Amino acid sequence: MEKEDIVKHWIKSSDSDFQVMESLFENEHYVWALFLGHLVVEKLLKAYHLRNVDADYPRIHNLLEIAHKASLELSDEQKLVMSELSTFNLRARYPDYKNRFQKKANRQYTEMQLNKIREIRKWLQEKINS
């Protein structure tokens, strides 16, 4: 598979996850919507890394670390958002985190975080295509 095909795969997969994220939110599966939101951003970061840095994208899940390896300049606000989004990867997967996280991930909290994901997604899409 050529590098550009892999980039397109990551973008397409991110778009698919984005649709599922929105559906999960509408169906009140907030923890899973946030987990998918993390994947949406992670996949776009990896697409950016592939296109602009190296074909050997980082096989990690920490969004700040991926952004750093991709040489993306982030605002302080974007750093805070990505740091928070990275926690959704763990909180949705492991029962001890998940039980506590379910109490926090109500509709209001989830909607606020999904709005941040939507903003980061749009920004990354612009960066990938520039």
Overall domain count: 1
CATH topology: Four Helix Bundle (Hemerythrin (Met), subunit A)
Strand proportion: under 5%
* Cα shape: globular
Annotated CATH homologous superfamily: Nucleotidyltransferases  domain 2
Mean pLDDT: 93
* CATH architecture level-2 label: Up-down Bundle
Description:
- The chain has a single domain, classed as Nucleotidyltransferases  domain 2 (Four Helix Bundle (Hemerythrin (Met), subunit A), Up-down Bundle), CATH 1.20.120.
- The protein is mainly α and 130 residues long.
- It is built from six helices and no strands.
- Helix 1 runs antiparallel to helix 2 (30-52).
Q: Which keywords apply here?
A:
single chain; 130 residues; mainly alpha; Four Helix Bundle (Hemerythrin (Met), subunit A); 6 helices
Concise structural overview:
The chain is mainly α. The protein has helices at 3-26, 30-52, 63-69, 76-91, 95-104, 107-129.
SSE layout and pairing:
Blueprint: H1 3-26, H2 30-52, H3 63-69, H4 76-91, H5 95-104, H6 107-129
